[in-house]
Amino acid sequence: MALPALSSSGVKFRRVLAHFPQELSLAFAYGSGVFRQAGASAGPGENNMLDFVFAVDDSVTWHMMNLLKNRSHYSFLKVFGPKQISNVQSYGAGIYYNTLVPCNGRMIKYGVISTDTLIDDLLHWKTLYVAGRLQKPVKILTQNENSKLQAALVSNLKSAVTAAFLMLPESFSEEDLYMQIAGLSYSGDFRMIIGEDRLKVQNIVKPNVPHFQKLYSNILQDCPQVVYKHHLGRLEIDKSPEGQFTQLMALPRTLQQKITSLVDPPGKNRDVEEILLQVAHDPDCGFVVHQGAKKSITYSMKKLYKMTKGWLKKTS
Fold first, then answer.
1. From the CB of residue 97, how many other CB atoms can be counted at a distance below 10 Å?
2. What count of other Cβ atoms lies within 10 Å of the Cβ of residue 158?
3. Which residues are paired to 279 by β-bridges?
4. Which family does it belong to (predicted)?
């Protein structure tokens, strides 16, 4: 799953990693400091913040060691100790960020997430916060031999392809596919509609199509429901009700739940399989899936805000 990022960048990232406790199940760098983006932020630039995510098996122990090495990275929460920091980490998307950290002459930010929380998000898209980042090219810096984590990383990519297939027409380009995948985790983000950068998804995908290909080509070649014309950069998928039902049944649990809640009237309580079969026969199947994804992300963002607000009240 490791991808080549910008030339000569590996040493730079590993030098950053050397500043932290090494008990990591997974560490990756992502964003415009790693991969080129089109538009105003084109090129990695030496001024772009470097973004990292560290997955750890034991959050309390890792924060304890990191407080000894890098106490200045933490906000006022450091006075409460590693256990309370880990409690805060468990809120919302299950990730704790230290931001605006000077390191090796660059500004960085890094998020810490437990391995179990990451695996849950990869498999079920409970928040799609970190899983969404891992559906786009990232620079893997270290990864241990946790077979459950490895399987979940692959499952997340397959789920992204499946969801994108359901929202695309029968024939489309590779770039269309990667645009759909890259947009999944932004579905419910109002910043993608107004304000921040309406072209952000396009800016991510266009300069990085080769990286997306390396991430997804094996999955596409092995998928029985798609004709992958690699030399033409085109794909054709099965849009029959039977094909769409198979894809719907393969979606992550959280997305299935949001789709069924959109379609099934309150109190009816039909079986999930029955509801998804109905959706598979619906001419607007792709729209229903998109609305389910949007509802799922919007719910996750609201939950993150609500839980964080609740914690701040407790500590004030």
1. 16
2. 15
3. none
4. Belongs to the TAM41 family.
